[in-house]
Amino acid sequence: AQSVTQPDIHITVSEGASLELRCNYSYGATPYLFWYVQSPGQGLQLLLKYFSGDTLVQGIKGFEAEFKRSQSSFNLRKPSVHWSDAAEYFCAVGPYGSGNTGKLIFGQGTTLQVKP
Amino acid sequence: SAVISQKPSRDICQRGTSLTIQCQVDSQVTMMFWYRQQPGQSLTLIATANQGSEATYESGFVIDKFPISRPNLTFSTLTVSNMSPEDSSIYLCSVEREGGTHEQFFGPGTRLTVL
Lengths: 116, 115
What we know:
The structure holds two protein chains of two kinds. By secondary structure, chain A is mostly beta strands. Chain A has strands at 3-5, 10-14, 19-21, 24-26, 32-38, 44-50, 56-58, 64-68, 73-78, 87-96, 103-106, 110-115. In chain B, the strands form two sheets. In chain B, strands 2, 4, 5, 6, 9, 10 and 11 form a seven-stranded mixed β-sheet that branches. Chain B has a four-stranded antiparallel β-sheet with strand order 1-3-8-7, with no helix packed on it. Chain B starts with a strand and ends with a strand. Classes of the chains: A mainly beta, B mainly beta. The interface between A and B is medium-sized, with 23 and 24 residues.
C-alpha cells in the first residue's frame, strides 16, 4: 500500500542554519512527489514537485529536494533558513487509487520552528 | 496556477446544524478534492468531486454526512451535516492542475468550530 512517512514531527533550527526535512514513501511505481508548506491559518502552497528527469529539483523560496529511488526518499533542503520559513511542511505522493484519479497521500507533517 | 477561494473562511456552529462550504476556482478544472484537517493533523481526503458525476468518497466518509455538489467546472460545495464537536476541523478544497502532473492547488481553507 502507498504511504508517506515524515519521521520528524518537530524541528527547530537557528536562523541562517541549513535545513533538511525527511520524507520516505512506499509506492509501487515511480511516484509523483510533492512538498507543500502551510503557514499558520493558511492553505497549502506547493514548494516543489518531482515526477521525472533530474532527481534534484528546485522550488520556490530557495528550497530544493532530491529524489533517491534506492532510499525511497524525497528530502527537502534549504541552505539558509529565514524566520519566515517557520511553518508546517507536508510531503505528498501519488497518484493512488484505481484509474488516473490524481489522489495524493500526505505525510503527517513536520513543524519547523526557527530560532532567532 | 489556479486561484481558489473558499467561503466562509471560518464559522462557529451549534451541534446538530449543517454548514455548506463553497469553493470557487478562477479557471475550469476537471478534478476537485475536499480534505479535512483535524487540529494538529495532516490532510485526509474526504472525496473527489468531478463535474457531471457523483462524488467519490474515501473510506470512512459518507454522502449523507458530507454531501457534495459540483454543478460546473469552476465551483463546488461541501456540506457538513448534523455536526458534532468531532467535526471541528479545517476543510480545504483543492484542484488538480490540468496536464497530468497531479499537482494540486489548495484553497485557503474553512476553519469550522462546532460547539
